[in-house]
């Protein structure tokens, strides 16, 4: 819905960023990695932008139609993947709105989880002092930051476990904001893998400016795939 982006000329994943659209940057590391054999791009049911992108006809990519909430879109993607996926296949879920994923982080995620039975996610440790406040923004307490991490994407899980977890939460109307939370609801414990804090999500308008700076500094090429 992009509520936090405020009014924009188009959905945030299609906004122009450093010579490409946001979603093209988000897809690039997945398209480049040999282990990502098939990519399902989940579109909004009223999407009118995807078909005009150069990447729309990429042979690795198929599309599915998403739902009202992020979790509904993830379930739609999993259902589309179901046709060719085996129970133990790895499934990577990434936000279209995260255009600054470094190839090295993707490699680290695969390497650190390759022998894991559950799977896990890229995340960054909380570095600031944390304050919990009341309704009038007065500090109630300082929350210890040790062992607190910020969840990023991609998140990597076995297909069978992730499908069960997302279905389990949907049936109970338990709204999850990431896949790891659904896995946790099954009583399992996803592994965090340290990722670069530059892997930001385009959530607020100022994030576009920051993403442009990050991509510029990384020297990535904006030539279409
Ligand atoms: N129904 C939805 C809602 C969101 N997303 C995707 O989930 C990712 C993270 O979305 P986020 O920025 O957290 O949420 P939005 O709903 O897009 O924005 P907001 O919460 O500000 O409304 C984005 O790549 C977005 O395209 C999705 O696939 N299906
Ligand atoms: C999955 C996610 O990007 C991890 O940070 C995030 O939870 C997406 O949803 P949100 O609406 O920004 O919480």
From TrEMBL:
Keywords for this protein: Isoprene biosynthesis, Nucleotidyltransferase, Transferase
Listed SUPFAM superfamilies: Nucleotide-diphospho-sugar transferases
Residues making up the signal peptide according to the UniProt record: none
EC number: 2.7.7.60
Domain of life of the native organism: Bacteria
Site note Transition state stabilizer, residues: 4, 12
Catalytic activity of the protein: 2-C-methyl-D-erythritol 4-phosphate + CTP + H(+) = 4-CDP-2-C-methyl-D-erythritol + diphosphate
GO molecular function, one term: 2-C-methyl-D-erythritol 4-phosphate cytidylyltransferase activity
UniProt xrefs under Pfam families: IspD (PF01128)
BP-aspect Gene Ontology terms: isopentenyl diphosphate biosynthetic process, methylerythritol 4-phosphate pathway
Site positions (Positions MEP for the nucleophilic attack): 145, 201
Pathway: Isoprenoid biosynthesis; isopentenyl diphosphate biosynthesis via DXP pathway; isopentenyl diphosphate from 1-deoxy-D-xylulose 5-phosphate: step 2/6
The protein's role, per its UniProt record: Catalyzes the formation of 4-diphosphocytidyl-2-C-methyl-D-erythritol from CTP and 2-C-methyl-D-erythritol 4-phosphate (MEP).
NCBIfam families in the cross-refs: ispD (TIGR00453)
Family: Belongs to the IspD/TarI cytidylyltransferase family. IspD subfamily.
Protein name: 2-C-methyl-D-erythritol 4-phosphate cytidylyltransferase
Native source species: Steroidobacter denitrificans
Taxonomy of the source species: Bacteria, Pseudomonadati, Pseudomonadota, Gammaproteobacteria, Steroidobacterales
């Amino acid at each position: 819905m992009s509520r936090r982006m405020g009014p924009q000329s188009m959905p945030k994943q299609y906004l122009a960023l450093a010579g490409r659209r946001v979603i093209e940057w988000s897809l690039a590391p997945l398209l480049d990695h040999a282990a990502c054999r098939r990519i399902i791009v989940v579109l909004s049911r009223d999407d009118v932008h995807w078909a005009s992108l150069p990447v729309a006809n990429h042979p690795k990519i198929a599309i599915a139609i998403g739902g009202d909430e992020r979790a509904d879109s993830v379930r739609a993607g999993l259902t589309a993947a179901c046709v060719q996926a085996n129970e133990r296949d790895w499934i990577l879920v990434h936000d279209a709105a995260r255009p600054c994923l470094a190839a090295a982080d993707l490699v680290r995620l695969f390497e650190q989880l390759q022998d894991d039975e559950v799977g896990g996610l890229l995340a960054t440790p909380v570095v600031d002092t944390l304050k919990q406040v009341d309704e009038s923004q007065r500090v109630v307490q300082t929350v210890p930051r040790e062992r607190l991490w910020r969840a990023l994407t991609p998140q990597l899980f076995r297909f069978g476990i992730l499908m069960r977890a997302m279905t389990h939460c949907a049936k109970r109307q338990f709204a999850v904001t990431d896949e790891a939370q659904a896995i946790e609801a099954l009583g399992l414990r996803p592994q965090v893998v340290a990722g670069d804090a530059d892997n930001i999500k385009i959530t607020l308008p100022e994030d576009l400016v920051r993403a442009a700076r990050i991509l510029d500094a990384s020297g990535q090429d904006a030539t279409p795939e």
